[in-house]
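Ops channel
N.P.: pipeline sanity check, posting one input/output pair.
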């Protein structure tokens, strides 16, 4: 999900799996039977300790990769509004931080995250 607070977006650095070590948007797997918005809220809280109100969809992104093992991911990305909580790394996040828009170009961010951030950036 793309969560802005003022001019900063919340990013996590992936601990393992696909894109380990890269900065990305908070998110993760949907549990069987779980609604997408509920999954987004749960994953945000587990990864960052932050709660948010989920808004509209920003986009659907596909990742097909051969390494480190064959995988096909479909990402449904939502815009969100910050509610509460202090951002801290949890679950499968190595680090978490609010990144000012002026610093986004300096970070190693996953391509899909970069595109979703650009689509949702406040005017």
């Amino acid at each position: 999900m793309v969560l802005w607070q003022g001019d900063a977006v919340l990013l996590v650095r992936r601990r393992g799996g696909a894109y380990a070590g890269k900065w990305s948007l908070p998110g993760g797997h949907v549990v069987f039977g779980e609604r997408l918005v509920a999954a987004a809220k749960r994953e945000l809280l587990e990864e960052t300790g932050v709660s948010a109100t989920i808004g509209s969809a920003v986009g659907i992104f596909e990742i097909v990769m051969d390494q480190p093992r064959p995988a096909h991911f479909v990402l449904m990305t939502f815009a969100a509004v910050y509610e509460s909580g202090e951002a801290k790394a949890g679950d499968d996040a190595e680090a978490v931080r609010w990144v000012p828009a002026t610093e986004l170009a300096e970070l190693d961010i996953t391509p899909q995250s970069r595109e979703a951030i650009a689509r949702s950036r406040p005017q």
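N.P.: looks fine end to end. The first helix runs from residue 36 to 48.
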